[in-house]
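To the wet lab folks,

You asked to see what we're planning to order before we commit. Fair enough. Below is the target structure as tokens, and below that is the sequence we designed to fit it. If anything looks off to you, flag it before the synthesis order goes out.
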């Protein structure tokens, strides 16, 4: 069993989805359950938004739980642009496992995310000059890896030897660079970073079970698709207009909910959920959203996100919905909590950047999960 520790739901889903594409049985879990037969278990610790000390404590406890299950190895999934408590969580894992070195590779070259000269670039542009500089929760105001992580971090160039201990971040600009670094992993080294480094390690160890000759999985044709936009970044990049271009009606949260000082009346929330459910029934696709520019760091807008998830739960309780498309890790995690889902099987779909999950023990709904910073691929839209 390979254990993955992620700080949010989309990160765990992304790694489990990548494992499924490689032909490995994979699960996402929100509470670690070693009784699973999965070859890859991706645990969401839900620690990205916590204080550093709290995040380190939770991740350290989770690592000790995982070690008791005797995993073959542990991978620390981080955000590709190093948002969250990356250094503190890695140090907590090292302290729990006794490993001396972490090889941290957050680069995803196929998506234009590379590291050169100790600095992070997206499509050739320094990270601090991209939209991530204004991220509402974790602004990336520097492109230098040392600045982004803080503490004692070592950056090394291409093919430069790494020190024997500490957190090491190498330059990576291509898939071949990934494979070179993947070959360095052994039991004394904690591998960490993005999905492409994880995939490179699996392939370098000959664990890829996918057959190139086998037919690719596709999204099954269904009657109903519910899109849920809980990502401020996705909304600000025109997700509503994109939905409308593909014939998907957008239901924004009504003013009687947005203007509520505390909890909105049950009648308002019920009407919002009923309106979405009616569109699903008559049109086959709908989108639920907060519906305006918002700051997810404010307490009031955190409540908006909770009310959005409550509306989605209300829709799922009213009628069967075969597919739910979720963007935003906090939104996906909140839906899992509300529905009391703690384990999800990953399904291979060949959708780049999108994980497909099915709650264990249920046939539906299938959940398609991605970060808000990536667009939906064209295959998800109804014809």
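Sequence we intend to order:
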């Amino acid at each position: 069993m390979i254990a993955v520790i992620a700080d949010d739901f989309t990160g765990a889903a992304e790694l489990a989805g990548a494992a499924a594409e490689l032909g490995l049985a994979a699960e996402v879990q929100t509470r670690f359950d070693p009784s699973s037969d999965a070859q890859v278990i991706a645990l969401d610790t839900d620690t990205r938004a916590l204080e550093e000390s709290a995040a380190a404590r939770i991740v350290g406890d989770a690592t000790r739980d995982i070690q008791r299950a005797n995993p073959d190895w542990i991978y620390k999934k981080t955000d590709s642009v190093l948002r969250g408590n990356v250094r503190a969580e890695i140090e907590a894992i090292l302290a729990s496992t006794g490993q001396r070195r972490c090889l941290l590779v957050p680069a995803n070259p196929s998506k234009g995310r590379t590291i050169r000269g100790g600095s992070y670039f997206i499509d050739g542009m320094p990270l601090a000059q991209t939209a991530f500089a204004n991220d509402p929760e974790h602004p990336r105001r520097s492109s230098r890896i040392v600045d982004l992580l803080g503490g004692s971090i070592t950056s090394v160039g291409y093919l430069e030897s790494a020190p024997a201990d500490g957190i090491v971040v190498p330059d990576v600009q291509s898939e071949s660079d990934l494979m070179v670094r993947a070959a360095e992993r052994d039991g004394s080294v904690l591998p960490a970073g993005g999905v492409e480094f994880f995939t490179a390690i699996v392939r370098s160890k000959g664990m890829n079970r996918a057959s190139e000759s086998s037919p690719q999985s596709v999204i099954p044709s269904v009657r109903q698709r519910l899109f849920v936009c809980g990502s401020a970044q996705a909304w600000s990049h025109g997700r509503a207009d994109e939905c409308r271009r593909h014939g998907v009606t957008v239901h924004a949260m009504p003013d009687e909910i947005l203007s509520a000082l505390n909890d909105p009346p049950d009648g308002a929330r019920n009407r919002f959920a009923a309106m979405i459910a009616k569109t699903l029934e008559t049109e086959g696709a709908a989108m639920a959203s907060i519906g305006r520019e918002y700051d997810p760091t404010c307490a009031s807008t955190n409540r908006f996100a909770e009310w959005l998830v409550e509306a989605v739960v209300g829709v799922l309780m009213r009628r069967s919905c075969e597919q739910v498309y979720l963007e935003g890790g906090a939104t996906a995690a909140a839906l899992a909590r509300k529905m009391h889902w703690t384990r999800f099987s990953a399904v291979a779909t060949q959708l780049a950047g999108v994980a497909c999950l099915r709650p264990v023990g249920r046939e539906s709904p299938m959940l398609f999960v991605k970060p808000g910073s990536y667009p939906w691929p064209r295959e998800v839209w109804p014809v």
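Structural context that might help your review: The first strand starts at residue 2 and ends at 6. The chain has two domains: 2-204, 225-380.

Thanks,
Computational group
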